[in-house]
Amino acid sequence: MKHIGQHAVVIGASMSGLLAARALSDFYAVVTVLERDTLPQSDIPRKGVPQGRHAHGLLARGRNAIENFFPGWTDAVVASGGVRGDAAGDINWIGHGVTLKSAPSHLVGLLAPRPVLEGHVRRRLMALPNVRVIDNCPVQELIAGEGNAAIKGVRVRIGSGEDHRITADLVVDASGCGSSSVAWLEGLGFARPEEERIEIGIGYTTRVYRRRPTDLDGKLAIVVAGSGPNWRNSVILYQAEDRWIVSVGGYFGDHAPDDDQLFAAYAGSFPTSEIYDIVAHAEPLGYFVRYRYPANLRRRYERLARFPKGYLVFGDAFCSFNPVYGLGMRVAAQEAVLLRECLNAGDADLARRFFARAAKVIDTPWDIAVGNDLRHPKVEGARPAKCALSTGISASCTWPCVMTRSSRPPSSKSPTWKRRRRGCCGRIS
Ligand SMILES: Cc1cc2nc3c(=O)[nH]c(=O)nc-3n(C[C@H](O)[C@H](O)[C@H](O)COP(=O)(O)OP(=O)(O)OC[C@H]3O[C@@H](n4cnc5c(N)ncnc54)[C@H](O)[C@@H]3O)c2cc1C
Question: In sequence order, what are the residues at sequence separation of 6 or more whose Cβ sits closer than 8 angstroms to the Cβ of residue 127?
Answer without folding.
Answer: none
